[in-house]
Amino acid sequence: MSTEIDNIRNFAIIAHIDHGKSTIADRIIHKCGGLSDREMKSQVLDSMDIERERGITIKAQTVKLNYKSKDGKTYILNIIDTPGHVDFSYEVSRSLYACEGSILIVDSTQGVEAQTLANVYQALDINHEIIPVLNKIDLPASDIDRTNKQIEDVIGIDTSNAVPCSGKTGEGIDEILEQIIHTLPGPKGEKDQKLKCLLVDSWYDTYLGVVILVRVIDGKIKNNMKIKMMSTNQEYFVEKVGVFTPKPKDVDELNSGEIGFITTGIKILSETKVGDTICDASKPLSESLPGFKPSKPVVFCGLFPVDSSEYQKLKDGLAKLKLNDSSFSFEPESSSALGLGFRCGFLGLLHLEIVTERLEREFDINLLTTTPGVVYKIHMNNGDIKDLQNPSSLPDPSLIKFIEEPWIKATIITPDQYLGPIMKICQDKRGIQTNLSYSGSRAVVNYELPLNEIVFDFNDRLKSMTSGYASFDYEIIDHREGDLVKMGILVNTEPVDALAMMIHKDFAQKTGREVCEKLKDLIPRHNFMIPVQAAIGGKIIARETIKGFKKDVLTKIHGGGATDRKRKLLEKQKKGKARAKQFGKVEIPQEAFIGVLKINKDLK
Questions:
Q1: SS3 (DSSP) at 601
Q2: Fewest beta carbons within 10 Å, which of 317, 429, 541, 585?
Q3: Torsional sign, CA 307, 270, 298, 381
């Protein structure tokens, strides 16, 4: 039985991290009878173990529900629960394109936060109708009037129809459902037209192959139909059509305005490009939908197995994760210190953390991560422009005209008593203040900052200096010329490529000294003296020395005084040490690499 397109509502749930998106999605699913009491669990749409443990959403999830309104009509609700963290904003933007409206959830105890702004502006950019929802009204600290005023002042949305609710107790859920039906527009589309379908997401299932999440714009998609992917011109037969209720449920067809999944026997995820247009192979379309901008990794680091025999295991693990997460990239690289590994690109540090944790947990690989860095643009004297991901492959400085680094626009929302320390940390990181405004006792401050300065620990430090009250969001704006140098680390005069880093000239000496001091403590003593040096080009800017073990070769000789025999033994020992130093290999333990990573955090 097909539903009239006017009775369908497609909407996304957007909010800052921890404002209660997944909990409200749980209440709506329960209210509409998507799952029985026995099947319900908290954060039912967060399917990964790591999502449930950390209490965050990483992958956007969809669910189709039937809702009988107070006026007796039955509506179909297609919900997309989106992530809140800045590293997964690509998931949010994709989800919004598949919908006509959004529910904006704001924690009534915390008010508007940075990621709230970022997600709302994305929704407003594509003309979404927005319903503000004030969550957590059951808490004593809840202040509905103040939160409404903040939404109007900071975002500029009318809050006369804002719904106070509690995801914990279920209060206000009925009002949200009625608002969805009466406020949000239904999808526009013609089911008698040629098939036009947006590919929203795709992931790999062990049993079904590649599962494709689609939003049907016009026409209908059904079993055994021959479809065509417009970006690749490949044709496939639809083997299965279904919806998530939130359990997968097979259906005969998806009509215009509906969201569901299809499988076509595709085994390689790269054949399904997110944002692609799917059409009927027998009635092709003349032009495709605009699609999405592809996600660009902004943070790169090397991943190496601690045990070199696990290289193939790591390669297979990365390939499998790539099937479920198209936003990260990897390519092989080798390091003289760490052996064979991969250079991986991520959307941010949390993304990096999640991927490495999944590799260690799901594939049982012990990993070593090199210093995360950003992509620099190297302008050569001959006019060429090169992208630099790995500092160790920086060309000869004499061939470089200048180096550009990525800059971001940061939005920080904070109680005004913490404004001073926040401005100081931003200035220490070469930030340029562009705006400062107030909403009640909270300040909204905008800074332009180099991405390299905030990629390590900026968010952690912000949270700790403001007792967790400040929130932070950023977007990349452009690349700008910077006074950047490559700082290399030499251990026993051998460069350790895994510890090389790009750094601003003003911070080089301090960082070099810190790294050398840390390595001096972390590298075990050998039979010979080991110099640890930080260098920029051929110039040593910092040095520490690890003393060698000294064997007492004079114990067998009795009597005092400096005899020839004693002198000969000491000379022999000295020559032996010099030879050992020349040919001896210094083993750098894993803790040393991790220790240097931590320095970068402590330093800035």
A1: helix
A2: 585
A3: positive
pLDDT tens digits for range 36-94: 544 444 444 444 444 444 444 444 567 888 888 887 788 888 887 666 555 555 666 77
- Contact (Cβ atoms closer than 8 angstroms) between residue 413 and residue 114: yes
Q: Are the C-beta atoms of 187 and 5 separated by less than 8 Å?
A: yes
94, 177 Cβ separation under 8 angstroms = no
Q: What is the C-alpha R_g of the chain?
A: 29
Q: Can you give the pLDDT at residue 603?
A: 46
CB 130 within 8 A of CB 100: no
| Per-residue pLDDT, 66 | 84
Output the six-digit token pair for 86.
Answer: 């800045």
Cα–Cα–Cα angle for 602, 603, 604, rounded to 5 degrees:
105
**CA dist., res. 160 & res. 575, Å (int):** 86
Alpha helices in 477-536 (DSSP H): 505-522
For residues 279 and 277, what is the distance between their CA atoms, to the nearest angstrom? 7
The 10 Å Cβ neighbour count of residue 47 is 12
Burial of 377 (0-12, 13-18, 19+ CB in 10 A): middle
Neighbours of 405 (CB within 10 A): 22
Domains defined along the chain, listed by start: 5-183 (3.40.50.300), 196-280 (2.40.30.10), 300-370 (3.30.70.870), 377-482 (3.30.70.240), 485-603 (3.30.70.2570)
Residue range 378-407, pLDDT digits in tens: 998 888 888 887 787 888 888 888 889 889
pTM value surpassing 0.90: no
CA distance 373 to 392: 11
pLDDT for residue 294: 64
Indicate the average pLDDT of the chain.
78
Determine how many CB atoms are found less than 10 A away from the CB of residue 412: 26
Across the beta sheet with 101-107, what order do the strands follow?
A: 61-68, 74-81, 8-15, 101-107, 129-135, 163-164
Q: For residue 29, give the H/E element and its range.
A: helix 21-31
Number of other CB atoms surrounding residue 360 within 10 Å: 13
